[in-house]
């Protein structure tokens, strides 16, 4: 009895299935990567705002308001849309730094993140 050969048309039913699944999954994977990147940028913005406010409060406690605002923007680029407000509140010098929430790239903005900091007011020795 001769060996049976597979029917030619039966083996072709799954051809291209991997390509179809790949094309269908690529947009979902890209969307997931964009969402993770957005979360990273928001977390980084929180970190930048808090650090800038702490540095600004320390500088303002010793040197005053102009030094406070200068220290706040020392390590933050213009793409973050930073605004800083500084002032004494009793014996504590407070700084508030606001950054725009980035959307996939720091130049695109959607909302704001605020960081606050405080330092004991100090006077320079003569």
In short:
This protein is of the alpha+beta class. The chain is built from two helices and three strands.
Number of helices: 2
According to DSSP, the number of beta strands is 3
Order of helices and strands: HHEEE
Rg calculated over all Cα atoms: 28 Å
Which segments are poorly predicted (pLDDT under 50) over 5 or more consecutive residues? none
Biggest beta-sheet profile: 3 strands, antiparallel
State the end-to-end distance. Answer: 111 Å
What portion of the residues fall into strands of 2 or more residues? 25-35%
The computed structural class is alpha+beta
| Average pLDDT reading | 85
- Report helical residue fraction: 40-55%
What overall form do the CA principal axes indicate? rod-shaped
Largest beta sheet: strand ordering: 1-2-3
Structure notes:
The chain has a 3-stranded antiparallel sheet with strand order 1-2-3, with helices on one face. A hairpin with a 1-residue loop joins strand 2 and strand 3. The protein has 2 helices and 3 strands, in the order H-H-E-E-E. With 126 residues, it is an alpha+beta fold. The longest helix is centred in the first third of the chain and has 47 residues, at 17-63.
